[in-house]
Amino acid sequence: MRLACVNGAAWLGTARRGLGWPRLLMLYCLIWPPAAVLIYLAFWPMWCDRPLLAMGSVVLSLALLSAGILLLDEPAQHGSAVMLLCASVLLTAGWLNTWHAGPLPLISVPASPAGTILAAWAMFSYPNSPLGPRVGNWFFTGLLAFFMAGDAFYIVTSRPQWLHFPASAWWVTLFPDQALSAEALDALNFAGIAIAVAYMVLWVARWRRSHGIARTLALPVAVAASAACAVVVVELAADAAGAAPGVMNGIYTFEAYFQIGVPAAFVVSVLRRRFTRARIADLVLRLRGPGQLPAVADALQDVLEDPALEVTDWEPGLQPCDGTRTGSCPGLPAARLSLPVTASSGEQLAVIRADPSLSANDDLLRAAIAATSFALENAKLETALAEQLQQVRESRLRIIQVGMAERRRIERDLHDGIQGRLIALDILLSATEGDAAVSDTGTTVKRVRDELALVISDLREMVHGIHPATLTRVGLYESVRTLAERYTVPIDVDLPPGRFGEAGELTAYYVISESVANAIKYAKARRISVSGEKSDGFLRITVADDGCGGARIDAGTGIRGIFDRVQGIGGDAELDSQPGRGTRVTAVIPCA
Amino acid sequence: VRVGIAEDVPLFLEVLQMQLERIGVEVVITAGNGDELLAQAARHPIDAAILDVCLPPTYTDEGLRAAERLSASHPRMGILLLSQYAEIAFATRLFANGSSYRGYLLKQHVGNAETLRDAVDRVCSGESVVDHELIGNLVAHQRHLRKLDRLSTREQEILALMAEGRSNQGMAKAVNLGEKAVEANIARIYAKLDLIQTDEDNRRVLAVLAWLRGS
Question: Residue A552 in contact with residue A578, Cβ under 8 Å?
Fold first, then answer.
């Protein structure tokens, strides 16, 4: 047996679609009325003497026709559909002998067994042949050939009058021999009985072997097939035993009505299948929220009637295998299918391990995989979104905290440094004012002026720390150069000239001033380089030093602040700081 | 009078020292923080300690905590807290364990020799001091809320003086009334504002402050 493992994606890609409801309805409107009229007319002579049988036969033919059309809409059931349609036509043709004229009696002889065999074939290959399509084809084609040959032999050895047809009816009599033709008829009947019994046994065996959803879906057809076989056996046996025409009529009538069960079974089966598909589609709604894989597995077990079904995380290197045709996959215990669940992005989300018998219902599997993919992708997106939201919240909180700490620092600088000194100066002056006679007025004024100069210088320094005034006036390059000149450590500045928008420049300046301060304060750098380049609306800033390295984002040295500021305006930052090998901070900042 | 100072801004320390010496107060200790003042006060006896509220290392309420420790070990030492913040909460915290010998003064009023002398004298003699600007603000606030409408102008004046921590005698001097008249005013204020009468001047400041703050 050949192992057929196909590429999962390709297999999933070949989604077959039905006709769709509007086109199906149109097909019914188009075929049904003329077919109904034709079938009604075909039974015209019968309506007069055996209306009950005529009624049953008309209904059976129309029911087969309807089931055939319905089946056309099912994925991969075109063969069965066409066979049912043909069976409808042939079984109708089988009763044309009631016309007793022209070629009609001749046509009816082979049409009846051919119709029955095609109906049996349709049932057997629904939803797929258990013996594989080729074996089924050979078997039923052989069967058909055998009966056609038998009927042909019967015709060439008989005369129409022996079958109670008028002598004027078309017939192909080559070597008439009444005894021989009667024996041929008996032989055909007995062969029919044997084959019907064998067919029934086959169905029972098939039924016993099947399980899960396949069994549920095949149940109506299996029951109808077995029952129909039983009736055919009775009919053939009665015919062979030479039952009276009245008895045969009764059997034919009963058979016609009874076999309406066959098309009905197809309809039930198709509806049952659609119901299952709808339930799978429903999973998408049921499987919302987190906690996915077990929930998905539970739901699929339930819907696909496979209690051993598993849904597991994707394992790299896994070979997808749908087990089509073979019903088993290599390397898997107990011959399980291994179906990849893929996100719309192509990412592998999970693997469904299912019973091989499910491969017969690949439309259901496809739906199940799609629903699972939806649910898992949804959950994944939700989780990712929640994580991102959490990060944004944390970063926002840190930005606020940094802002508050900054305000505290400014307040302290103003309050303790500058306000306190100004108050002292005020007191000093008021004291001098109090007694103008004091001899050292000049000294006091000198003192106050010196102090004021210091206060002004401190104030300027402080204001620069809040927002470097030079940044808005002379741009990033000049501001960073001025910054570099304030330090004794040599700093190489290689930044593009020009302006990059207020937010971009301020963020870049912040990154540079913080990184430089860190390099000097913590890394004890002896040389620092600041470089930058602009491309595609982004300013890429790099600050590298030859210090001790080993800086970490969460070590409270302001690097977290750099990341937050940069990410806060939609950029990103990177820290490379191996111990002993210097530190490199890279920030990509969106800019105007 | 001998005082010790704890102040971290060197210029202010220098100016304060100069100012104190101008009003005849001897500065025997100058410290940059509370611990230093405490350590020195153990060796050099002082009548009063003048502390900045915000001192290193935390710059939050170091001065206040040093003051609490000082008054615990020296109950009769005058404590004068200086602050740049017009923050009445510091005063209520200072008075939480009794208001005698304690005062709270805004830094910008140190330049006024009269105010400084008055404050030092009062804390040294066991009275309380609350910066009159703070009280002025509170009274104005309550007046705005129309809660002082029941009091006469004189009574409002007396209420503010009580909140500043003045004794009956001090009040009498400030408003040019006899002590009996001041006492009568105080009794009427207590009745009108539903304050619980207490003979202790000590508790009186806190109660009046609490009322003025609306709690």
Answer: no
